[in-house]
DNA sequence: AGTTTCATCACCCAATCATGTGATATTACC
DNA sequence: GGTAATATCACATGATTGGGTGATGAAACT
């Protein structure tokens, strides 16, 4: 990645919009992007107040989004963007490294999450990656994202109800919305046998109704 | 990251075990790690047959794990490692880039996922990151991981059932395992009213039983 | 003033579910 | 050979649920 201050307008430039309340940082980003081949800064704003209008008009490829901004913050802006133009790749650019913000940003559709101490070269790389369908983030951020996923450990932990194979099978069918009769059909057993199995499942799960069993099964990933 | 062929034994070296069936690649990795300060290759094996014994004896900090190996593959090995020694950081090192393998590896507790075409320098960086609590992966892998998370889009999309406030409240109580009678009590309304609300909920959700409603509610909505 | 939406309640009937108390056959293990 | 776990089935009883039909009042919007 080379910085180049003679910037030709190419058709393949990545069009970028920046949301950042700090004037110095905003200026730095402008200079960086203006001076880099393949990048085109088409807008830079202090907050997300006008985000809807701006995104629709400017049609950026990538948005670099600060989180902590006065009036209308970056998470709010992100959500609006993903509603109006879900194809836009939004990269969060912030000092926050807490699970809360990361989780909300990722769940709201951000594709990348960078910290402000990211060096300029890495920042340009990240924008390119975001534009190419990647999800740029540091490995410490990635670790936090992984912790949001269901892990094998959790699964093992919760499979401790020691359901038999048949019982698991029937619980699965139950979760999928099958009635006793449908389960009996699918398993080729009598409805009384289904009953019998389900009674044992309730015992093992310490529940007393289909609803509770289904909720527990889904929440604890027994299914 | 510099390669250094005069390798002093420092106490802070990252202890690494490699599982890789290709002899050439295994040799390359050995040379790379042997020649790099801060890295100590303490074992290299062709498959995961003896993984349990090896991990317990060698106590590595980081494991570099191929997936496609004869007899005992890397995903199997990963699971055994995470059971016996969950503190070990396992980085998958493979040619596979499909969702299936990535998903299984991440859910089984792998902290990193690298492709075999990763350049040596990046590989060493990744091992360090894994050792320092990071989750090294390329941004394209990261994007795939993100897709495994529930997104705001999905939530918005599915909130489209337009339940009224009361209906949402009752659905929530249903999901928590309450019977009609219990809901009636908690909401201080008659059981017939509960019925009435639930009937409307079923209509809107296109389901015909508590079980289905609960499963649907949990899988794609509020709860 | 009329219409729509929402929350509330009532009654009926058939289907389904929860629970209890059995029994039988198979497999596996000591 | 005896025991335990599993899977199968039966019968009975009462509670709960699902669907239909309809009514009332309040709020909101036209």
Give an overview of the whole structure.
The structure is a homodimer of 223-residue chains. By secondary structure, chain A is of the alpha/beta class. Chain A contains eleven helices and five strands; from the N terminus they run E-H-E-H-E-H-E-H-E-H-H-H-H-H-H-H. Chain A has a five-stranded parallel beta sheet with strand order 2-1-3-4-5, with helices on both faces. The longest helix of chain A has 15 residues, at 191-205. Chain A binds a DNA duplex (30 and 30 nucleotides) through helix 8 and helix 10.
Topology (elements, then pairings):
The structure is a homodimer of 223-residue chains.
Chain A: E1 14-19, H1 23-34, E2 39-45, H2 51-58, E3 62-65, H3 74-84, E4 89-94, H4 99-107, E5 112-115, H5 120-131, H6 139-146, H7 152-158, H8 165-175, H9 180-187, H10 191-205, H11 210-219
Parallel strand pairs in A: 1-2, 1-3, 3-4, 4-5
The first copy, chain A, binds a DNA duplex (30 and 30 nucleotides) through residues 164-167, 179-181, 189-193, 195-200, 202, 208-210.
């Amino acid at each position: 990645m080379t910085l180049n201050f003679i910037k030709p307008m190419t058709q393949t430039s990545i069009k970028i919009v920046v949301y950042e309340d700090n004037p110095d940082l905003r200026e730095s980003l402008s200079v960086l992007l203006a001076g880099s081949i393949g990048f085109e800064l088409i807008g830079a704003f202090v907050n997300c107040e006008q985000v809807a209008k701006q995104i629709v008009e400017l049609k950026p490829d990538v948005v670099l989004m600060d989180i902590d901004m006065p009036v209308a913050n970056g998470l709010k802006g992100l959500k609006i963007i993903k509603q109006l133009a879900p194809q836009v790749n939004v990269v969060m650019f912030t000092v926050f490294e807490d699970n809360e913000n990361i989780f909300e940003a990722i769940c709201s559709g951000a594709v990348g999450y960078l910290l402000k101490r990211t060096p300029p070269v890495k920042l340009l790389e990240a924008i390119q990656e975001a534009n190419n369908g990647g999800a740029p983030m540091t490995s410490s951020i990635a670790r936090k994202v992984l912790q949001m996923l269901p892990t094998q450990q959790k699964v093992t932990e919760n499979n401790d109800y020691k359901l038999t194979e048949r019982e698991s099978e029937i619980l699965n069918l139950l979760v999928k919305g099958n009635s006793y009769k449908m389960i009996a059909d699918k398993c080729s057993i009598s409805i009384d046998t289904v009953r019998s199995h389900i009674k044992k499942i309730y015992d093992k799960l310490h529940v007393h109704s289909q609803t509770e069993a289904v909720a527990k099964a889904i929440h604890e990933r027994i299914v």
